[in-house]
Amino acid sequence: MANKESITIYLIRHGEAKASWDEDKDPGLSQKGKEQSRCLVKEILCELPTDIKVISSPLLRAKETAFPLQNKMGFNLEINTVFSEIPSPGIPLSKRRDWLRGIFNIKVKDLKKPQQKWRDKINKSIKLIQKDTLIFSHFMVINSVVGWINKSEKFVNFYPDNCSITKIKKHEEKFKITELGRDLHTIIQ
Predict the structure, then answer these.
(1) Contact, 180 vs 147, CB < 8 A?
(2) pLDDT tens, 115-172?
(3) CA-based, 20 to 30 A from 172: which of 1, 27, 100, 160?
(4) Which residues are within 8 A (CB) of 72 and not within 5 positions of it... i.e. 6 or more apart?
């Protein structure tokens, strides 16, 4: 039976990482990223229901972004690998930045099989959400969801800033983006 109530899904990009994509496979937050995650609490706390489900990518920068809000609200943080960063199998760490930049201008139909499977899993998981949910995740994950909802041919549709909040409404199995997160004005690292 379809859920008749509207729910809100919040996609939060992690705070600034202390190392770039080609320097560390799983960096934590920089000092600026930690401050961004503390500011996020002030920005979002008043609009969240107390019984919200909270999910995080297993990557350290996403989990660390969730910690200040978790300390304030006391929720259980569910770790879900589906919301991890875009897979880059076989790409050496030193070449990941160039590989990632190459993906920015491609169309969804041109994604390679690992990235297409990753995107499909994300979108299937979003469809299954049945209550207000907050997801701490990554730039490409958020773009995957936004592109899917907007039926965009482009893989990257906008540049969500660190700790930006993208809001999605789900009503009777239909999805609508109600707010895109703040736009990033610099190049992704």
Answers:
(1) no
(2) 999 999 999 999 999 999 999 999 999 999 999 999 999 999 999 999 999 999 999 8
(3) 160
(4) 41, 45
**Could you say which DSSP state residue 79 is in?**
E
Q: At CA 183, angle to CA 165 and CA 166, rounded to 5? A: 20
Positions of E strands within the chain: 7-13, 53-56, 77-79, 133-137, 165-171, 174-179
Closest listed residue to residue 85, CA positions, set 43, 26, 135, 141: 141
Q: What is the pTM of this model?
A: 0.92
Work out whether strand 174-179 and strand 165-171 pair parallel, antiparallel, or are unpaired.
antiparallel
Backbone angles phi, psi at 164, to 5 degrees: -80, 155
For helices 60-73 and 31-44, the axis angle rounded to 10 degrees is 40
Residue 158 phi, psi dihedral angles, 5° rounding:
-160, 175
